[in-house]
Amino acid sequence: KVSFVIGKKYTKKTAPIPLNRNVQLREIPAHTLAVRTFSGPPPKDDRVLRERAIIDTTLAAAGLRAKSNSETLVYGYHDPFITPNILRRNEVAVLIEGSV
Fold it and tell me: If DSSP codes are grouped into helix, strand and coil, which group holds residue 85?
């Protein structure tokens, strides 16, 4: 899945209409994420699992927890191939219970 954010000035009704029928607009309610940011190429599954484990441990130490059955979200900055991996940014995130 691929997602993006439309600016605050738009609503679902005033957002540009997608040209591709496979693109759907939907509103996501406000939420709080716990996130680990790191550089490098798009992460493989083992790296995502390691980052998620660090998030879970850190949340527990802070008296917080991930939402039950919360999926692990992976975000990446993937521009043209000319950008060295050290300058690419990736994030692994998880929804947390409540807000901080």
Answer: helix
